[in-house]
Amino acid sequence: MAQDIRDIMKASSSQEPKLPKGHKARFEARLQANFSPNKTLQVSSSMQIWIKIAAVAIAFVAVSVFGYYQLSKNSLGDSLVESAPGVESQTDEKLLHLADISPDLKRVEQYYTKGIKGVLASLTITTENKDVIDGYMQQLQVLDLEYESLNLELTQAGPTEETITALVDNLKMRLELLMKLKTKLKELKNNTNENISSIEV
Prior knowledge:
The chain has about 200 residues and is mostly helical. Helices cover about 75% and strands about 0% of the residues.
């Protein structure tokens, strides 16, 4: 009863499988029905509608998020320090800045800008020192306008050694001016405290 597998394989390979009558014709008819050019156009046109709807939705979401970000940035502001006079506006992206020229100049600009912002943030305005602070802020505004005109020159004429040196010197002068203001305010506070203590004695 046991048969050799080789004999079984020889017997089965000699017989070709027979397909039912009309199988080939039915198969070709199904191919034509499912993959006809008219059906492909219908699928692609309905797909195009969905792609257009998705693209419009994505564009709407992107514009909404960008608009929300811009409105919240403009209405709330980043901080009092960035809106203070003497600190350049970060929203003016058309002008070329030192940071755009090289990483070294970017570090120099960041160093002075952080120093300026730090001193401005540490200022406490009182009725006694308001006039002094206002005087220094006017000088700082003049330097700020000069800095912006230098940035404009840098953008229009390209980076030159003179312009870069003038920009760095401007940042340095603004920081030195604020440090003088801080020293002046300390002297003013000490004089006020000495006057108060001498009155009490």
